[in-house]
Design goal:
Helices cover about 35% and strands about 20% of the residues. It is an alpha/beta fold and about 425 residues long. The chain has two domains: about 10-200, P-loop containing nucleotide triphosphate hydrolases (Rossmann fold), CATH 3.40.50.300; about 235-425, Nucleotidyltransferase, domain 5. The strands form two sheets. The chain has an eight-stranded mixed beta sheet, sandwiched between helices. It has a seven-stranded mixed beta sheet with strand order 9-15-12-11-10-13-14, with helices on both faces. Helix 12 crosses helix 13 and helix 14 (about 355-370) packs across helix 17.
Length: about 425
């Protein structure tokens, strides 16, 4: 077996070759690649995993696991298939069966593709006998799924491959695997941005500027850092504009309604009910979108001493609309009755993507690089909440990373709107 070393950094080569008979780590049970985003971990790990599997076994099963099947395909399978074919491997993608059939130098193996998005995912992998498993974004997977997949690795010589960006220091994967790497006989490799030779110095500098606070420590320094305090702690003063400044801030296409708004809602009965009017706009030459939050509707039942019905909220939303050509309304996914009420009223509606921590990370990044603008005159509740929206320190001490469920309704609506309409690859690139 031969490798072309030139395209790889020293750290990538370690990840690529740790299992070779000539490596001092070849007796290890697995490898953990953790650290900064965009550090060149994912594709190299996938290549290493398949090359190891094909060189070691024939006629066995492996698992390629992502947060979802689609993310596994996007992050691992698609780039990996091309790299393997370039190196003389034959790859047959049976998409309907969720597997790759790989052959090389007389060996044939099957690589099943799984998504580990929630607790129910563990049942999907039951019944398989595996010779190895790769987990991409393992820190975002439920423990039950990871442990079930590991338990299926009963073939003699099986190994485990873990790839992730850090979360909190009490995260179950940090406690049970990263901290016990020596005990479990894992190779632990920490990646920095500089370990990815495909990134220019300019790109690395850009990424250093994109993140602040907890997300800088995790995504750039690669630390398993504790999240506490105000969530959006680094909002530029230029984020906020007044009605008098509106004509200077909003793009001409927005002002002339060539770009139509969309709306995001956080549902409340005893808590505030919020609608936000939002615009997503891509400036020429900038791949990262801009968001403009121009108006806010808020009904606080506790302050008004009256709850409104879903039908009343639908009526209020119709009155709140400024452009009948609006794109859609994004609704809190747990608000089934509100969703149905708007749907029955003929509204263009969709359920929000409610992955809290990744959503907060995206919003925080867009704030830090000046890609979110908020009308402070028309969105007073959102402006007020941004200074009060905090991580739950008590839950954080138990390894649970969640915001405090207070002063969060406009913030949640904003997150729904941004995270649902934007791929993380538009903001972060391929991580």
């Amino acid at each position: 077996m031969s490798f072309k070393y030139s395209p790889f950094s020293k750290k990538q080569l370690q990840l690529l070759t740790w299992w070779l008979p000539t490596s001092p780590y070849n007796k290890a049970n697995g490898v953990i690649a953790e650290g900064a985003v965009r550090a060149g971990k994912t594709v190299i790990m996938g290549l290493s995993f398949v090359m190891w599997g094909m060189a070691t076994f024939s006629g066995v099963n492996f698992a390629l696991c992502g947060k979802t099947v689609s993310s596994a395909r996007r992050n691992i399978v698609e780039p990996l298939s091309e790299l393997l074919k370039m190196r003389g491997y034959k790859v047959i993608d049976r998409k309907t069966e969720g597997k790759l059939i790989v052959s090389h130098e007389g060996n044939i193996n099957i690589f099943y593709i799984f998504g580990g998005k929630d607790e129910s995912s563990a049942a999907l992998i039951q019944g398989l006998t595996l010779a190895g498993v790769l987990f991409d974004e393992v820190a975002l997977m439920p423990r039950s799924f990871v442990e079930q997949a590991i338990a299926r690795c009963s073939v003699e010589g099986a190994k485990y491959w873990f790839n992730c960006n850090p979360e909190g220091p009490r995260h179950w994967f940090k406690v049970e695997h990263v901290d016990k790497a020596k005990e479990r006989k894992y190779v632990r490799l920490h990646f920095n941005l500089e370990d990815n030779p495909s990134l220019s110095a300019e790109t690395i500098e850009k990424y250093h500027a994109m993140f602040t606070g907890i997300f800088y420590r995790r995504f750039i320094l690669g630390e398993w850092a504790f999240a506490d305090g105000v969530i959006y702690s680094s909002i530029p003063e230029s984020t906020f504009y007044s009605n008098d400044q509106r004509a200077k801030v909003l793009p001409i296409k927005v002002q002339e309604k060539d770009v139509h708004p969309f709306y995001a809602a956080d549902y409340g009965t005893t808590n505030p009910m919020v609608y936000l009017e939002m615009y997503k706009y891509s400036k020429p030459g900038d791949s990262i979108p801009y968001f403009y939050i121009d108006r806010e509707y808020c009904w606080n039942s506790a302050e008004r001493f009256r709850q409104k019905t879903d039908a009343e909220y639908v009526s209020d939303f119709k009155d709140f609309l400024t452009d009948p050509r609006y794109k859609f309304l994004i609704v809190d996914p747990s608000a089934d009755s509100l969703y149905v009420a708007h749907q029955q009223a003929g509204m263009r509606i969709m359920k929000a993507k409610n992955d809290v921590r990744p959503g907060i990370s995206m919003v925080s990044t867009l704030f830090s690089i000046g890609h979110i603008f908020i009308n402070k005159d028309e969105c007073p509740n959102l402006v007020a909440e941004l200074g009060l929206y905090q991580w739950d320190a008590k839950k954080g001490e138990k390894g649970i990373e969640e915001p405090i469920k207070q002063n969060d309704h406009s913030c949640d609506a904003m997150r729904y709107g941004i995270f649902t309409t934007t791929s993380k690859y538009e903001v972060f690139g391929r991580v």
